């Protein structure tokens, strides 16, 4: 580790601060809208989106953890809450006694199908409509570059 911190230049700090402010404001507003519109938390929505996009509406628990970038304990608590409300089920993995699948239930599928159109409209209203297609293309390239960079850097 370097003895001297590599402080951000003013332009770098301004870019970072703007990104953080935008991300936190956008996620906060979208989370409040999901809750108000559907009664689901943003975490419920995130789990259900990933499950319904997966083959047969099921994912191994650890694959789901990795996909949403959560700690195992957070996912475990989230799945427990969602199971109690009938949105997901847990199934043992037949070929791996240690593993488990998290499976979207019919009630979970209905919940995401009801919530998704409203959420997409909020994403469009708060994010997409503020940018040109050129802006969106550039933003996607930047996000992909940062993600690829992080893949080469261990936590």
TrEMBL record:
SUPFAM superfamilies: Winged helix' DNA-binding domain (SSF46785). It comes from the Bacteria. Residues 1-148 form the HTH marR-type domain. One of its GO terms (biological process) is response to stress. One of its GO terms (molecular function) is DNA-binding transcription factor activity. SMART domains: HTH_MARR. InterPro entries: HTH_MarR-typ, MarR/SlyA-like, WH-like_DNA-bd_sf, WH_DNA-bd_sf. This is MarR family transcriptional regulator.
């Amino acid at each position: 580790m370097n003895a001297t911190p590599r402080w951000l230049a003013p332009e770098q700090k301004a870019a970072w601060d703007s990104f953080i402010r935008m991300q936190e404001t956008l996620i906060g507003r979208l989370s409040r809208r999901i809750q108000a519109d559907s009664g689901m938390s943003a975490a419920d929505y995130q789990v259900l989106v990933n499950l319904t996009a997966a083959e047969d509406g099921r994912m191994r628990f650890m694959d789901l953890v990795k996909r949403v970038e959560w700690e195992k304990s957070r996912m475990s608590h989230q799945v427990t809450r969602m199971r109690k409300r009938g949105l997901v089920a847990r199934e043992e993995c037949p070929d791996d006694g240690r593993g488990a699948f998290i499976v979207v239930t019919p009630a979970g599928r209905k919940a995401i199908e009801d919530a998704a159109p409203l959420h997409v409209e909020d994403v469009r209203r708060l994010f997409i409509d503020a940018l040109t297609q050129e802006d969106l293309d550039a933003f996607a390239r930047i996000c992909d570059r940062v993600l690829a960079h992080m893949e080469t850097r261990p936590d």
